[in-house]
Amino acid sequence: MEENSIEMISFQIISNVGTAKSLVMEALSAAKSGNYDESEEKLKEADQYFVEGHKVHASLIQKEAAGEPVAFSMLFMHAEDQLMSTETIATLVKEMIEMYKKIERIN
Question: Which of 12, 13, 71, 95 is deepest in the core (most CB within 10 A)?
């Protein structure tokens, strides 16, 4: 498998955003326990992985914009789905963490 093949790129996206999604869920768990410092650290770490996954994805968009054909692949479609669902989950988790903080202040 060529280093920059669609399969390799797909696996790089899946790996990075999968790690990001796991860290986001760990951040939520930490916040649920009231450990907001740990929660923030997990979110920062998750952002780093998400950015790496996004960079790999952007490289394909740049290739196609430059006129290089990008082959369709179910694996790549799955990678894009993971990228977008992780972004959505991260956004929702950040909102949930803010709710935990507000609830804690009220009680």
Answer: 13
